[in-house]
């Protein structure tokens, strides 16, 4: 029997750079895990590809998926649903392949309840001033909205305690290397491999 794959969850406060770091990980050549494409009800942006960036669905379609129990997790973020379709994750882990999720904090906590043996990585900003700069630098938010986002970010940072690892996103390539090294060490955890040895002993 193949050993079950590892579920890797990258999360952290809005604006910390989750999307940027995730893209850099998947652009690098030496990664051996599968990205789970999320489903969302937000509008497709120019340049985004259906089934590659997201599965773009209506609110009704998304709610149908929830009803049928086909979402591993989902959250409402800035007025839209975002979630992880369960069938792909299950199928891929069963094949022995690692699955990588990049999701916001509420969703990550739901995954932690359902899959406690996943690896939960929290991406942190070097400091709050830098987080504010990244949120400001990204777009068209008003000062009030930025204050609101910073308040949410502070609450999200408090959730760090539920995670296994905290990785500082000071520079993207450094954050990428830290995440890769965490994932490779996870494969050597005794609780992941002990079953195989027990089986060998039983068969002696
Ligand atoms: N819970 C959850 N969050 C997600 C999922 N996919 C993306 N997100 C998060 O949703 C937030 C908004 O994503 P997006 O609309 O692409 O905006 P941007 O990353 O801010 O440009 C980000 O924090 C993502 O990490 C998902 O499947 N589940
Ligand atoms: N290490 C970094 N140093 C400087 N800017 C960064 C870094 N990582 C991400 N950014 C920038 O911060 C902003 C937010 O990044 P993004 O990936 O959209 O965050 P998230 O997905 O966590 O909301 C973007 O403008 C991005 O280019």
UniProtKB/TrEMBL annotation:
InterPro entries hit by this protein: GK/Ca_channel_bsu, Guanylate_kin-like_dom, Guanylate_kinase, Guanylate_kinase_CS, P-loop_NTPase
Domain Guanylate kinase-like: 5-184
Gene3D superfamilies, per the entry: Guanylate Kinase phosphate binding domain (3.30.63.10), P-loop containing nucleotide triphosphate hydrolases (3.40.50.300)
GO MF terms held by the record: ATP binding; GMP kinase activity
Swiss-Prot/TrEMBL catalytic activity: GMP + ATP = GDP + ADP
Positions contributing to ATP binding: 12-19
Any GO CC annotation of this UniProt entry: cytosol
Keyword terms: ATP-binding, Cytoplasm, Kinase, Nucleotide-binding, Transferase
Pfam families reported in the protein's UniProt record: Guanylate_kin
Annotated localization: Cytoplasm
EC number(s) per entry: 2.7.4.8
Family: Belongs to the guanylate kinase family.
Purpose of the protein: Essential for recycling GMP and indirectly, cGMP.
PANTHER family named in the record: GUANYLATE KINASE (PTHR23117:SF13), GUANYLATE KINASE-RELATED (PTHR23117)
NCBIfam families, alphabetized: guanyl_kin (TIGR03263)
Protein name as catalogued: Guanylate kinase
Organism: Tetragenococcus koreensis
């Amino acid at each position: 029997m193949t050993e079950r794959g590892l579920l890797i969850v990258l999360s952290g406060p809005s604006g910390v750079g989750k999307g940027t770091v995730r893209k850099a990980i998947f652009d690098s050549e030496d990664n051996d895990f599968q990205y789970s494409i999320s489903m969302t009800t937000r509008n497709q942006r120019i340049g985004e590809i259906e089934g590659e960036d997201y599965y773009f669905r209506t609110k009704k379609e998304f709610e149908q998926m929830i009803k049928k129990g086909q979402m591993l997790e989902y959250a409402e973020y800035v007025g839209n649903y975002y979630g992880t379709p369960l069938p792909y994750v299950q199928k891929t882990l069963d094949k022995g392949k690692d699955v990588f999720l990049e999701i916001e904090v509420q969703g990550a906590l739901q995954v932690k309840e359902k899959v406690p043996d996943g690896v939960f990585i929290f991406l942190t900003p070097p400091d709050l001033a830098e987080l504010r700069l990244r949120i400001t630098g990204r777009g068209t938010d008003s000062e009030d909205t930025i204050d609101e986002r910073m308040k949410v970010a502070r609450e999200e940072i408090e959730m760090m305690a539920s995670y296994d690892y905290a990785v500082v996103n000071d520079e993207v390539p450094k954050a990428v290397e830290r995440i890769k090294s965490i994932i490779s060490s996870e494969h050597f955890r005794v609780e992941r491999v002990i079953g195989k040895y027990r089986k060998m002993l039983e068969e002696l």
